[in-house]
Fold this sequence. Notes:
Elements: E1 4-5, H1 11-14, E2 17-18, H2 20-40, H3 49-68, H4 72-79, H5 82-90, H6 94-101, H7 106-125, H8 132-146, H9 154-171, E3 188-192, H10 198-208, H11 213-218, H12 224-244, E4 248-254, E5 257-265, H13 271-292, H14 294-309, E6 317-324, H15 333-347, E7 353-358, H16 361-369, E8 373-380, E9 383-391, H17 398-405
Parallel strand pairs: 6-7
Antiparallel strand pairs: 1-2, 3-4, 4-5, 5-6, 7-9, 8-9
Helix pairs in contact: 2-3, 2-9, 3-6, 3-9, 5-7, 6-7, 7-8, 7-9, 8-9, 10-12, 12-13
Amino acid sequence: MTAQSTPHWLRDVLGEQFEPIEVMAILAFGLSVATILMLGLPGVSNLPVWRATLAWLLLADIAAGCLANFTRSTNDFYAARPLNRILFIAVHVHVLIVAWAVHADLHPALCTWAYTIVAASIVNALAGRRAQRFVAGALLACALVGLPRFGVAAPLLVVYMLFVVKVAYAFAVDHRATDGVSREPDGVIVRALSHRDRSAFVDVIGAAFADDPLFVAVLAKFAPTTLTSAQQALVGYLFDMNQAVEGTARGLFIDGRLIGATLVEPPAQNRARAALWLIVAAVRYLPVGLRLGGRASNLLNVYFRETRAAAPLVPHHYLAMVGVRPDRHGQGHGRRLVDDAFEQARLDVRSRGLALDTENANNVRMYARWGFHEGKVVVLGELQAYTMFRPAPASTCSGEVAHRAG
């Protein structure tokens, strides 16, 4: 089975793309473990149906999470969203509710919950560091040794142990962190970027776009002494906004060093959500806009508006940025990143392909070799932006693309 795009309302559980066989295994494990544990709890037959049902659902969530949080999709989703990870840890009060629902002693549940939240917070604070797994393992081992001392019934003891495993280890650890060493045979790995990769992203994209016509025009007023900091502010804003609109930032690493990166925007959402994004974008852009000035801000606004308007009418992903360090050009890294972006579109049932724009006429021929069709040329004074689109396999939108491009 191939990976499938996850509905937005389930992405906090399964990430952006899920493997059907993994989901079936997670559900089977969660439901069966919850049933076994409920049947073993003393006095459960005397509970009101609503209490028993509530406890069973929470037990299923705890057990299923022990597996789900090890999946690539869930791990990458939260690795790229540190705030979501903190919120996820904070809202986990499952053991307290379970103990209350089955009329168990709340003291062991409270101690288990407090230890787990503190341990998970410590582990999460070590994200990106080599010591994270060791510390998480040590904290987990301490919990597994200490929990039996509470003397609770065996089924409830298993619940508390699973809770610690789920939150403090399975979830809080970034299981796909490279630790500076690539896991791929060819020394190259492409993975989601998190906020801790922001500085490296700004450096890479800043170098890759140093001669980009749009960047040159936007930053024209800055002297050499202030140009770099202004460029970093702009690139940093673009990275932050990609995260805010639930886009995807991906990076290509060689032996732990970021070599190239992409920003991909998801298909347009409903109007209310789009309006919210515009408000967020305006607020976040304010300090950057004050620094760049009115002329540069207007140019960016018009550029983004006109190039997006020239894209196909059908739902699609948008490759907002792709860049590779100048000293790594000509080694196929750009193609690998573009193919990775297209794979995101291909796996999303809402998307009909991948759109992009470039101000470099030479890039048009390159993208054409990679399966992109030429679209409308957007002229903004001395700038010319060439819009292109690569339809997903079996897509029927080619006619609509030609219509918009004309």
